[in-house]
Amino acid sequence: MATKVNRATAVGETSASRLSPELLLGLYRMMVKCRMCDEKARILFRQGKYAGNFYSNVGQEAGEVGAAYSLRDDDWVAPSHRDWTSNIIKRAPLKYCFAQLYGKADSPDRGKSTPAHMGYPELHVITPASTIAAQLMIGTGVAWGLRRQGKDSVVVSFCGDGATSIGWFHEALNFAGVHQLPMIYVVQNNLWAESVPLRLQTALKNLSDRAKGHGIAGVSVDGNDILDVYEAATAAIARARNGEGPTVLECKTYRWYGHSEIDPAKYRMKEEVEEWKRKDPIPRFEKYLAEHKLLDDEQKKQVRDEITREIDEAVEFAEKSPYPAPEEALEHVWA
User: Fold this and answer.
1) Which of 69, 192, 288, 332 is the residue whose CA sits 20 to 30 A from 28?
2) pLDDT above 90 (res 16)
3) Reported CATH class of domain 2-321
4) In the beta sheet, which residues pair with residue 155?
């Protein structure tokens, strides 16, 4: 049964009183870190510091952080091409994240993949598939393996609204529903499947309703409210860990920039973009924290200064790292 969750517009209209100040500030810091790293990656791309392409997640941080922040080390993440920051949330060292962008020898895959297609095996982050929605199938396969091994680990897989219109999305949900797998399918509904608006993809108002056809739980939340997402995600993770099956978690949000850094996004109205920027999840959460005496301007500056230093050190590491030797292209391949 799918559940539509309609929250008040103010952050914190949840059971956030149960959350510790340390957790709330941790969520805030991680959102800021993801935003700053993403924006730095965009700048570096436009400066020609690395080749390939980059798919920005700016604007969608609440869904990304809220869904993955509470995962254990032995839980898995199956990200899409837009979820480079899921490695950061899983606590991958920042220097390796930027080395991945640069395609350097010190990156997790030693420069074998495109910039945003980063996985981190030690922390159970799966390398994204280039094919839309394929990561959902891979994540579901991992969940099946975990179930067969008798483990209580879970898998969180991210996708966009466009992926929900592709057959592999439904194949993954169907298999997970039949076998009650420990899966959370996080749909970052940013209203645009590259240049195709949601209204031309589906007549549904809530993409979580897609869960109904597969007999699994579905929840739609305000994807720009970090506490809304966190509450729904932790409940879904607990159900999955207890053997109660998968959940589709739709986060209604918006990407600020084009599909990728080479997309000027002229298909969108300027007014639409500006309206969503006013719903920025970070200042929205800052207001909540300030109202609860947990954050002031000095603390905000301190957080940004610390993250800036960490990013600068990571970029320096990536730029000093060597490129892999050409013959390494033949290593670590199946055939």
Assistant:
1) 192
2) no
3) alpha beta
4) 76, 183
